[in-house]
Amino acid sequence: MANVSVYNMEGKEVESLELNDAIFGVEVNEHLVHMAVLQQLANNRQGTQKAKTRSEVSGGGRKPWRQKGTGHARQGSTRAPQWTGGGMVFAPVPRDYSFKLNKKEKRAALKSVLTNAVAEKKLIVLDNFDLAEIKTKKVAEVLKNLNVEKALIVVDDNNNVVKSAANIPTVKTASTSTINVFDILKYNTVVVTKAAVKTIEEVYA
Asked: What's the pLDDT score for residue 1?
């Protein structure tokens, strides 16, 4: 099993923690990692191209003139495509780019990036991250003590930490239930509390 150092909020090493190989010591599957990132980016896309068909434009409820005897071609609505202000033929509609990965694939991808973070020494474990008040300066101070700039902070539902880190542009917070492959790869360092490590091992083992 892999061992990592555990630090306090002052940046001093206080103990060593043995990680579960079922989560932090698996064989890295690059294909599943790629698919997980692709899925997250695709699911966030918005297919915003849209035009209205004749059934969606407003007006045109009444037949503009009678069927016969006017000399005009017969018309049923002033919102037909050939009229100004009419609907569009075969109008584009928002496209759904999302696709699904099954639960086993998602978990395997997450375990792969966590294993990679440990191997590349990008995972920093804190003994605790308790803030008595909402203070951005305190979070910045802790990260400076750990010599970290761009970081993903994973905590076990600590609202003060989440709100305190919200104004730091190079930092993102996540709970153990919302961590994902894309964020772990995006940030240079993953700062995770000892309690959060235990929860991750219980949930994803």
From this structure: 67
